[in-house]
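yo

u said u wanted the structure for the complex thing, so here. seqs first:
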Amino acid sequence: MSVYLRPTKPRTAETSLGTNGENELVNNENVNISKVENKKYKTEICVNHKQEGSGICPYGDVCVFLHKGDEQFEKRLEFEVKRQSHVESIQKLHADLAKATEELAKATGKLAKQKQALRDKIYNEIGRKVREWNNPHPNGPYYYDVHGMTQPLLAEYIQEIIAKMEMSNVHQAKVETGKGNHSPYNFPALKTFLVTEYPRGMFVPDENNSGVLILTLEQSCSKIE
Ligand SMILES: [Zn+2]
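structre next:
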């Protein structure tokens, strides 16, 4: 409650702007902090403006999420539709994989060989689909959405990502494993795998999004400050 009774920061800064160098500095810092805090400002679609939403948002113009009519709305909507279709195709592959694995367990002889080949084909298709989704960088460069990967497929992919980063002298990337809520494929297992199986500090949860890990490569020894 008391927080609302305090003068707001912009107002404090406004009244002292240009009269006191120190306050100006404070003001600049505040601006930077709010920019960091609002990194996700108007990047995701408001639940009320999603297809299944009412179209009416109680926050109106002050809502931090995208509304119909906002500049980035259509672009983001297009991305979400594409992502949904990607997620569905991965889910279908997992269902096919489960079925093929079941059939393989029952098969013998020549049939077992056929079933094994089919299962391998579906398995590798999952890895291929995830790469295909990330290659055009729908979320920006060095952002990898690895939803639906199995642990061995992910390990292989991470190796490729690291090689690419090293080649381009890039030290940070983001890996989206998802939070695992309502997930039929145990996505948090991927997050745990990356955090625990790789060197300490290499994968750290993004404080802005617990479904994302920040991958940091150590800089070469010669660059130590
Ligand atoms: Zn809204």
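The first strand starts at residue 143 and ends at 145. The two ends are 45 Å apart (CA to CA).
cya
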